Amino acid sequence: MNVELSSKQFRRLLDLVYIGNWILNSTRGDQRFPDYDEVESLLFGRALDEGMTALAEDLDGEIVPSHAFVEGGIHEVIVEYENNVFFDILAEELARRDMDHADIDESNYTELASRIETYIAEFEEYGTEHICVEFES
Fold first, then answer.
1. How many domains is the chain partitioned into structurally?
2. Nearest-5° Cα angle at 78, 61 to 81
3. The whole model's pTM is what?
């Protein structure tokens, strides 16, 4: 298979591959999906072939994203995504808790959505500052 990409498009593809592999494998420890690591290595190897030597490096015989690539801002994008997802999930979980984890259907969907919106507004203004967790002893 051949795909024609400009240098800029290829550079964006490297970002997408890195982000995708990070999401899939970063928390898996020894249970990584090696197929995705292979694809990442293949594409970053191609970056070396294309003269993009600042983006990839050989680490013990494996081509990996370079330290410069990893430290170049890609994780800021990942962190922004994780923060947004965190607050979305937290808002929905709290709203469902407030509704005693009732099954959601058309009769109570509007209430759920309203509660989620209220929590999201709170998080946008205060982050986690007003969250309080009570522990039972």
1. 2
2. 155
3. 0.79
Q: What angle do CA 46, 47, 48 make, to 5 degrees?
A: 90
- For residue 87, the enclosing domain spans 73-126
Q: Is the residue at 1 inside a domain?
A: no
Which token pair is 48? 């070396």
Q: Give residue for tokens 């995705």.
A: 36
Q: pLDDT tens-digit profile of 21-62?
A: 999 999 999 999 999 999 999 999 999 999 999 999 999 999
- Indicate the burial class of 50 (C-beta count within 10 angstroms; 0-12, 13-18, 19 or more): middle
Please state the φ and ψ torsions of residue 52, each to the nearest 5 degrees: -90, 60
C-alpha span between 10 and 7 (Å, rounded) = 5
Q: How far apart are alpha carbons 43 and 84 in whole angstroms?
A: 29
